Amino acid sequence: MSRRGWFSLILLAALLLAALLAPWLASQNPYDLATLDILDARLPPGSAALDHGGTYWLGTDAQGRDMLSAMLYGLRISLAVGVLSTLLALTAGVVLGLLAAWHGRWVDALIMRVVDIQLSFPAILLALVLLALTGPGVSKIVLALLAAQWAYYARTARSAALVECQKDYVAAARLLRLPTWRILLRHVLPNCLPTLLTVAALQLAAAISLEATLSFLGLGLPVTEPSLGLLIANGFQYLLSGRYWISVFPGLLLVVVLTCCNLLADALRQRADPREAGR
């Protein structure tokens, strides 16, 4: 893997570790309303807290939340939603894609027509409709992202599996009368993983971005537990008044996460196809 790929992987792992350790790294629990002080609202970066001797290195928002603490907790939610929805969509899409490639005929036609219908709708539109019907919540937004993204994995898995099923080792496995599940899971799927992992890295960035968009619009997570998208939305009205830090710092963190995911996906693509390395 290229240096950019390793750098993005290490940085993404560091951000994930910081999100997991947020309760210990953060100086404040931004979700505990009892610990917030309205007198600390909208303080600029580097300001001292009025009720204790701490320092708000990235300032505070309109509710008096420490922006650094809120970003760590918001990053944890954004990554958790993105990773969980990506894993669920990957699992569902791979299962359906492998079944379509293996059985062919009407099974393949049925699954692929559903995929075509699914991909004809923009992911943001489908997620908006589902969340408008079910309401906000972590589980609801994970299901919405799952419904919006499984078709990408199904089509990719089917395409890769169709190529593998034409190879001699699959024909030999059939002649040995190995069970279908064993051929698919132990022989076909491992050879499809490089392509699937590349798509998963791209879709992870898309899932995090889509969750941030939905939260920015007020259809994602609850206001009491803001993710990065909702943190950006909370400070949007203060941008023209000079209080830039409420939106800019969460926005920069979101850009870093998405950039790492895309660089990692590009490195995985080059690793899967060495011909792409020189392009």
Notes on the protein architecture:
With 279 residues, the protein is an all-alpha fold. It contains ten helices and two strands, in the order ααββαααααααα. It has a two-stranded antiparallel ribbon. α1 (3-20) crosses α10 and α3 (67-103) packs parallel to α6 (138-165). The protein is elongated, with a radius of gyration of 22 Å. The model has no long low-confidence stretch (mean pLDDT 86).
Which helices and strands appear, and what pairs or packs with what?
Layout: H1 3-20, H2 22-25, E1 47-48, E2 55-56, H3 67-103, H4 105-119, H5 123-134, H6 138-165, H7 168-175, H8 180-216, H9 228-236, H10 245-272
Antiparallel strand pairs: 1-2
Describe this structure in a few short sentences.
The protein is an all-alpha fold and 279 residues long. It contains 10 helices and 2 strands; from the N terminus they run ααββαααααααα. 70% of the residues lie in helices and 1% in strands.
Keyword list:
279 residues, mainly alpha, two-stranded antiparallel ribbon, 10 helices, 2 strands, Peptide ABC transporter permease, OppC_N, cell membrane
Biggest sheet architecture: 2 strands, antiparallel
Q: Which regions have little confidence, pLDDT < 50, spanning 5+ residues?
A: none
Count all strands and give the number.
2
H-E string: HHEEHHHHHHHH
State the helix count: 10
Radius of gyration: 22 Å
The end-to-end distance, rounded to whole angstroms, is 15 Å
Bin the helical content. over 70%
Structural classification: mainly alpha
Cα shape: elongated
Please report which band the strand proportion falls in: under 5%, 5-15%, 15-25%, 25-35%, 35-45% or over 45%: under 5%
Strand order of the largest sheet: 1-2
Round the mean pLDDT to the nearest integer and report it: 86
Transmembrane segments: 77-102, 244-265
Keywords: Cell membrane, Membrane, Transmembrane, Transmembrane helix, Transport
Domain ABC transmembrane type-1: 75-265
Protein name: Peptide ABC transporter permease
